[in-house]
Each structure stands twice: as structure tokens, then as C-alpha cells.
Known about the structure:
The chain has helices at about 115-125, 275-285, and strands at about 10-15, 25-30, 35-40, 45-50, 55-60, 70-75, 75-80, 90-95, 95-100, 105-110, 130-135, 140-145, 165-170, 175-180, 185-190, 195-200, 210, 220, 225-230, 235-240, 250-255, 260-265, 270.
Amino acid sequence: xxxxxxxxxRDLTGVRWAMDSTTMVVWESPLEYKVLIYxxxxxxxxxxxxxxxALGVKCLTWSPSGQFLAIGSxxxxxxxxxxxxxxVIAEFPHDALVESLDVAVYKEVExxxxxxxxxLAAVQGLPxxxxxxYEEEHLRPVSLASIAVEPSGKPQAxxxxxxxxxxxxxxxxxxxxRNDNMPSTLxxxxxxxxxxxxxxxxxxxxxxxxxxxxxxxxxxxxxNNYVYFWSPFGCLTVAVPAASSLQITGxxxxxxxxxxxxxxxxxxxxxxxxxxQQQENTLNNTPGS
Length: 289
């Protein structure tokens, strides 16, 4: 036993260590908004409460460097706290309207497959095959679909409201979030500029997402046989070949960042990713390139 001490909560819900193991964060149940930072000696370094008389903290996560603590709340905001002053340095609201032209908005669209695969399907009498792609929305404002909270007027045990999932990129540059009453939308924020970078709107609710452990690349799944990728350079959709029945509900990156496991209910597939050098070598070795 190193230390035993009481914390200043009424109903402690969770404890999470910082990455350097010198501090820990504890928080109250959702009925009361309260976040406490403790040192290893048991002294309280900071106590934070954003508001009262409403549902409070829904999730927390530390950045890989331990410099930032992100607090996801039921009021649909992420509050970013730094480890120097233990004060909130930014608030990230998840509004239903995107007005800034500095924010890239990508929407998933389904189109009939063209070219040789479509011709082959037509010759064989197969139904029209659809392909899924991202299209960037340039007009502003952009309205995002949102689920009405408590449509029946009765309280819910687990309301679909607030920021429920957050992940920092491995280089601490970005934070990806999902607001549970906008389940099909993924938000990417820049930690360096403390502002919204991109919004990815999908046809189906986002099931899971995970950052590449080696670079700023995000993999996303929505319960179908597609895997979606975001990076600062844009978005990409990839259909899993020869596994159309695979409904991807989970993702797991290899530590090298060269493969990502796509997990389904009873099967899985491994997606192998080419590096930039491999892509250049393939292009240089292609006849007529």
C-alpha cells in the first residue's frame, strides 16, 4: 500500500490515471458535475464543475502525452483541461449547424457502380451495385441530423445525449468525438489551434473509431462492410473485398500502423495499408506510368 485517502465525491463513478502515473482524475456520477484531480500523495490539485442541476460528466480521456484531459459532458460539449494550471482552456460544442468555411464537411453518399464491374453485373442480370464515397460539402450552413431527446416526455435511464466517445490521436494533434444524439456524425478537432477541423457525416451510426498509432489517420466503421479513413489530407471509403457479409462493428490497429483488424460479430478481416513509399514503387513499376 502506497497511500490511502478519501476523495471529495458523494458517489465516485470512475478513476483514471494520467499517462505519466503522477496524477489521477476521479469524477462523480452523472447526477452531479464534478471532476477532481489528485496527486499520488493524495492532495487535491484541482476541483472542477461546469454547471449544476443537470446531467454532468459522461466520459473522460487523457491525451497520450498527458498534457490534456478531455471531459465529455451531457450538455454536448467537450472541455479541454491542461496539466499546468488544471483549468479548462477550450470548450468544443457539438452544434447542429456548421457555418464556418474553415471546417471541412464530408458526407457519405451512395452511387451506382460504374465501369466494368457495373457492366459485368448487368450482363449477369444482377441487381444494381452501389458504391459508397465521401463528398465534400462546400455550401454553408450545413445542417446535421440530430435525435430528439425524450420524445415521449418521459425520463430515460440512459438518454442518447452528450459526448459519449472521445479519442486523441497518437501525436496529440487531433481529438475525435461522437455526440450520442448525432450518432452518424464524427467530429475532428485540432488540439494545437483549439478549433473544429472536420466533420464526417455517415449514412449509418458510427459504431467505433480508432487512430493509427503512427500517424494522424483515423479509421471508422458504421456496421456495414466498409471501413472509412480520415486524415488531414481528406477522406476515403474502402469496401472489404470478398467479405460482403462482414458487418464491421470494431477496429483494432496493429502497433506498426500497417494493418487494421476489422471486427464483426462472428468473423473478422485484416486490412493491409500501403505506405507512401510502397505506393510510389507500385506506380513506378506500372507499365505506361
